[in-house]
Amino acid sequence: MLPKAEILRADILSQKIPPGEKLTLKNLKEQFDVSSTPIRDALTRLTEDGLVNYYSNVGVSVISLNEQDLTELYQFMGDLDRLAILYSASYPDHDVIYRELDTVIKRTSIIEDKEVLSPEEIPQWIEYSDRFHLLFYDYCSNSRLTHAAEKLRSQLTIFSNLYETETEPQKKINRMHTEIYRAYRSGDYAGAGDLMKQHLNDSLQYALENLRKIQN
Question: For the segment 134-188, what is each residue's pLDDT rounded down to a tens digit?
Fold first, then answer.
């Protein structure tokens, strides 16, 4: 069985537990049939990940983001991803990065050959799409940059998991990833970083559309 934090995390990222939902110790104990300790540990972990907020004398609630929050989140994430690209350019063995990027692009390009992905293919596609971004952090040789991005990416994933199930965003995301990959492989690291920044700005528009749907 998955750790309690990972189960709750998955439910929050999929919006099975919606933004703003209050999480009570009593209800979670009943849901998981466990004592208070593992639940408290799970909530502490989720607080550290930036997925829930703890308010003294009120309790714990899933984060709720407004349009300004999303705009700031995607803009800053674009800056961090751009930096990860630039820092990874100093990695001594570029062939390793190229091979991994090539594998990711091939796995996500399946969307270009299909009208719609099957329910089984969508989670796999999202996993590889996310991997495209995370890969640059693996080779950026800067633990502080990686740590800063981890928390923000958890918040971003709440919304990216919504629009990345749709065909139009999937195809646009894949095309942008391909452009970034080509620029990076050609040695135009600054250009690849700028494209990544634009990619996050484009994704912001999808996130805002989904937020407005939820609010209505």
Answer: 999 999 999 999 999 988 898 999 889 889 999 999 999 999 999 999 999 999 9
Whether residue 43 is found in the same domain as residue 131: no
Q: Are residues 97 and 53 in the same domain?
A: no
199 neighbors 85 (Cβ within 8 angstroms): no
Amino acid, single-letter form, for residue 151: K
pTM reported for the whole predicted model: 0.89
Please give the single-letter amino acid code of residue 71: T
Last residue of a domain, one of 12, 43, 62: 62
Q: Count of domains in the chain? A: 2
Q: What are phi and psi of 53, to 5 degrees?
A: -115, 140
pLDDT tens for 88-130 read: 999 999 999 999 999 999 999 998 888 889 989 999 999 999 9
Range of the domain at 12: 4-62
